Amino acid sequence: MQKVLLVCASPRKKSNTMQVLEECAKEIEQNGLEAEIISLRNMNIDSCHACLKCAKIKKCKIDDGLNEIIEKIRKSDGFIVGSPVYFGTARGSIMAALQRIGMVSRATDKFLSWKVGGPIAVARRGGHTATIQEMLMFFFINDMIVPGSTYWNMVFGWAPGEVEEDEEGLETIRRFGNNVASLIKKIKD
Ligand SMILES: Cc1cc2nc3c(=O)[nH]c(=O)nc-3n(C[C@H](O)[C@H](O)[C@H](O)COP(=O)(O)O)c2cc1C
């Protein structure tokens, strides 16, 4: 079965980003694909050491759990990342993760090539577009396919659960999930 992996960058147990990703995953499943959400909540993701060892050992030399996520991405057809906005940009750990995932892909078999997906940003008030753009750099440099939606992939909310009130934001994310799933099905036809 075709699969989409979704990564949630929030450290919070009751996370708005997780809620948004769950909506997205539901839509993907309704299209007949498998969806799995992974949280970075209990992980301490280090930044790339620029050692270039990945070219030789075919994985990242840092042993902090990211290699397990990389293996899941490798086996998936789609990859979606959701991050809360922190001071106008993505949470640091997701950028550290994306940079290392990209490095391993580029230094090995370019497994990210033609995977379908994109970024989602969740915030109380501002910084969504900069956060989306920051994460988009990963998708575009790694030969990935990013579909649009009916608005940008942003949802508003501060306290846990508040994203439920942003119906337009959630509808944008549902549409995005539908577009990711539909594209994967078309590519694999
Ligand atoms: C350190 C920190 C920085 C934040 N910076 C912003 C910000 O720049 N803009 C904004 O609108 N919200 C900001 N917020 C609020 C969060 O983005 C918001 O609460 C979001 O719903 C958190 O998502 P989560 O529940 O998935 O962690 C910040 C929150 C924290 C903890």
Automatic annotation (TrEMBL):
InterPro entries: Flavoprotein-like_sf, FMN_Rdtase-like_dom, ISF_SsuE-like
UniProt entry tagged with the keyword Signal: no
Residues annotated as domain NADPH-dependent FMN reductase-like: 3-158
Keyword rRNA-binding: no
Cofactor: FMN; [4Fe-4S] cluster
Homology family: Belongs to the SsuE family. Isf subfamily.
Protein name as it appears in the record: Flavodoxin family protein
Origin species: Methanobacterium alkalithermotolerans
Upper taxonomic lineage: Archaea, Methanobacteriati, Methanobacteriota, Methanomada group, Methanobacteria
